Amino acid sequence: MTKAAALLSGGLDSMLAVKLMLEQGIEVEAFHYVSVFSPCVSSNGRYTQGRVAADILGVPLTIFNISRDLLEIIRHPKYGFGKNMNPCIDCRIYTFSKVREYMKQLGASFMITGEVLGERPMSQRRDAMRIIERDSSLDGLILRPLSAKLLPETLPEKKRLVDRERLMDIQGRSRKPQMALAEMFHIHDYPTPAGGCLLTDPGFGKRMRDLLDHHPDCSLNDVHLLKLGRHFRLSSTIKAVVGRNEKENMKLTTLALEGDHIYKVSDSPGPITVVRGDGGDDLKNLPASITARYSKANNKEDVNVSHRVHPSTKTEVLRVSPSDMNMLKGLMI
After folding, report:
1. DSSP letters along 127-172, please?
2. What distance in Å separates the CA atoms of residue 129 and residue 122, rounded to the nearest whole number?
3. What is the C-alpha to C-alpha distance for residues 223 and 207, in angstroms, rounded to an integer?
């Protein structure tokens, strides 16, 4: 039996690409990638969109966490970024190459993806698709079932492993052809279209750029912090992250590293603020004032804010006035 390796994001496009192969009697083994930049991933990776999709389709799935490698790609993307901080071409070359490494041991003759010609502006142009195919050493072996009739014949088509006439000619950003195809295949449980990973989000992208500009050797812990709270750049080496609710306060406390400074209003409900980087006594009061501003005591003239250096439990109390909001706008990332 002919076998294909599939990149399965869990979105409708990738589900349909797999389904089109299964309909031709082709065995499919799927691969799904998660990272610190994935929008929704459970702590153990079990409940990713890819896992849900694989269960619906009835195909085996292997999940890889590529957080560390993707962070390195973001530091030095060969083909640059998209509209925000998304190195889509470099990322796809990397993930395609990873799948290629497993194809031989799986006995897979080719690889499939749910890519649609012209759907995404950076990585799904004809020239970008060609670059990805070339740089991942998969010339002629990447079949894109949803747009196959608009693209050159691949090796599996030429070898008649796949019936080209039963493939699609979808292009552009409209979802109507995919939704009609999903209806035909009785696929109803699929996610609404999203913008992609967090690196495509303008707000997150701005924070990521600030982090790399000021801390190029940043860690995954630093990246996790970007997903929480309000961020303030206090100096070239110091940043404050202020929790927005109780859930974020708990996560910030969990992510705090040794040497981080932690602030909390002493006698009123309010946020946890984690400050990374040490500015000495000169910058000690500013994070305390920011913490007071976002607390229930923000209408008071003076507020008691506790300060400690993690993981020590020894605290000092700082008496500060809540920060001016106009000043904070200039510091906010």
Report:
1. HHHHHHHHHTT-TTTEE-TTTGGGSPPPHHHHTTSS-GGGS---BS
2. 10
3. 9
Sheet hosting strand 303-309, strand order edge to edge: 230-233, 239-242, 272-276, 261-265, 303-309, 316-320
CA pair distance 119, 45, nearest whole angstrom: 27
Helix (H, G, I), strand (E, B) or coil at 257: coil
Round to whole Å and give the CA distance between 260 and 254: 12
Q: Which amino acid is at 33?
A: Y
Contact 99, 108 (CB under 8 A): no
Distance (Å, whole) CA 24 – CA 277: 58
Least confident of 47-51, 94-98, 147-151, 161-165: 47-51
Write phi, then psi, for 29 (nearest 5 degrees): -120, 125
Burial (CB count within 10 angstroms: exposed 0-12, middle 13-18, buried 19+), residue 211: buried
On the question of pLDDT at 195 being above 70, the answer is no
147-153 average pLDDT score:
97
Q: Give the DSSP H/E element, type plus range, for residue 241.
A: strand 239-242
- Mean pLDDT across 77-82: 95
Q: Is 102 left (phi over 0), alpha (psi -120 to 50) or beta?
A: alpha
Average pLDDT over residues 144-148: 98
Asked if 199 and 87 touch (Cβ cutoff 8 Å), the reply is: yes
d(CA 328, CA 322): 11
Task: Tell me the C-alpha distance between 160 and 139, whole Å.
Answer: 17
For residue 70, give the 3-state DSSP assignment.
helix
d(CA 114, CA 101): 20
**Tokens 């890819």 belong to which residue?**
50
